[in-house]
Design a protein that fits this description.
With 272 residues, this protein is of the alpha/beta class. It is 58% helix and 10% strand. It has 9 helices and 5 strands; from the N terminus they run E-H-E-H-E-H-E-E-H-H-H-H-H-H. A 5-stranded mixed β-sheet has the order 1-3-2-4-5, covered by helices on one side. Strand 4 and strand 5 form a beta hairpin. Helix 5 (113-139) packs antiparallel against helix 6 and helix 7 (195-217) runs antiparallel to helix 8 (225-259).
Length: 272
């Protein structure tokens, strides 16, 4: 019998995320009877794939890493490739199902992983956009502008909810906000901005969302093309509205600067 190495939290990044080979990580507990049955199934596939895959075990009693990957039941099998989680099996898979998942992994076809990575970034940006729109409609004085931003906030929240439901189908369970290099600059507190600065941030977020939705539309693994087309249309409209508001501010700022040294009137529309 081939010994499956147990990895701890201090080793996790080096052994799992930086592995040159794909990794099958079994999340289990020594007291779990069904985990022992799963271990015997894994022993069967190790015989075939030991040269192409690294097989590891994570003891959830001694580790906290399982929380990072939303492990809700044991045993759960997590599949990693090039430092990314690209698949999981939770429902006590049969040996043949494990073989099929490994086959996809070593052939360079991680099921739906690329589309999930993009969808996760989109979700984070939709969350950020919703926060900024709420900040805007809560603080502007002009009633029409307030209602406009409130509507944009409600539509953005709806986008987030639609994608959260889709995240189950796209890959690995419940959505949890994350911070990546793609979202780092956008996941900040709106209160740290002036309202003009918040509006500029909204424009940046919507422009980024539009490019990502267009990318998702062309991804063969995206499960709902009609939803993607709908979101592209609505995000494009959000971007146009935000840009129109910014042009209004810039025009008014220039005009009042030419006409008077008094407090610019456009601030009554946008700033409190």
């Amino acid at each position: 019998m081939i010994q499956v190495v147990e990895v701890n939290d201090s080793q996790f990044d080096v052994i799992v995320l930086k592995s040159s080979l794909p990794v099958l990580l079994e999340c289990a507990s020594p007291e779990c009877i069904i985990c022992k049955t799963m271990a015997s199934r894994i022993q069967e596939v190790i015989k075939e794939y030991s040269s192409k895959l690294i097989f590891l075990r994570l003891n959830i009693n001694e580790s906290k890493k399982w929380k990072d990957y939303d492990v809700r039941v044991i045993p759960t099998l997590l599949y990693f490739k090039s430092g990314r989680l690209v698949g999981r099996q939770e429902n006590f898979p049969e040996i043949e199902e494990i073989r099929q998942q490994i086959s996809r992994l070593i052939k360079g076809e991680p099921k739906k992983a690329p589309v999930f990575a993009d969808a996760k970034i989109v979700l984070d940006l939709e969350v950020a956009a919703a926060k900024f729109y709420k900040y805007l409609f809560s603080n502007v004085k002009n009633g029409k502008t307030k209602e406009k931003f409130k509507l944009l906030h409600e539509e953005t929240v709806l986008h987030k909810e639609l994608l959260q439901k889709k995240s189950h189908e796209l890959a690995v369970g419940v959505y949890n906000p994350c911070r990546t290099r793609e979202t780092e600059a956008f996941c900040v507190k709106p209160q740290s901005f002036s309202l003009v600065g918040a509006l500029k941030m909204v424009i940046k977020i919507e422009a980024k969302l539009l490019s990502l939705y267009k990318k998702l539309k062309t991804n063969e693994n995206f499960l709902d093309k009609e939803l993607c087309v709908k979101l592209i249309r609505e995000v494009s409209n959000h971007l146009k509205v935000a840009q129109k508001e910014m042009r209004f501010i810039q025009d008014k700022e220039f005009m009042t600067a030419m006409d008077s040294s008094e407090y610019p009137t456009w601030l009554n529309k946008v700033l409190d």
